[in-house]
Amino acid sequence: MNASLRHTKGTARRQRAQALVELALVMPVLVGIIAVLLQFGILFVAYLSLTHEMRDIGRWAAVHPDTIDGTSASCTNTSATDLWRQVCANVPSVVDPTRITFSVVQGADGQTRTCTALVGNKCSNRAAGVELRMRLVYDASSLIYLPNNFRLGPFLQVAIPTTLPAYDYSVMVEQH
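-> C-alpha cells emitted (176 positions)
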C-alpha cells in the first residue's frame, strides 16, 4: 500500500514539473504575441483618429474653399485663415501634431487645387463643383514601443511600420 501511494505522489510531482516546463517554453511566445497585438492596436487607434480628423478637415474645406493651404511646419505659427490651422485645431490626443504631414494633392481629374494666396478674398483654383483632394500622413515612430523588426522563431519575421499609410480624402467644393 505504501509503495503505490509513493508512486502516485511521484507521478503527480512529475506532471506538475512537466506543466511548469511547458509553461516556461510557451510563455515567451504568448507574451510576444500579446505585445504585438497591443502595438498594432495602438497604431490602429491612431490611424482611426487621423481618418476621423481628415474627414472633419475635408468637410470644413468643402464649405470654406477660400482658405490658403498653409505649411505643415508647426501649429503655433499658422494663420487663422489657412487649412493647416484646421489640422492643428482638430488633432486627436493620441497623435503628435508635429509628426503630421498634410497636403493638397492631385485629384482624379489630374488637377492639384492648391491655394497659396487669395486674390480678392477668393481662391481662384477652387471653383464650385470641383474635386479637392487632401492627404494626411503620420509618422508613428513615437507610438511604437517594440523593435521595428524582430523574429519569432526561424519562420516568422514581424515588421512594424513607422509611418501610417497615407490617407487621401476628396470633397467637392461647394458654392462660395
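The mean pLDDT is 82.
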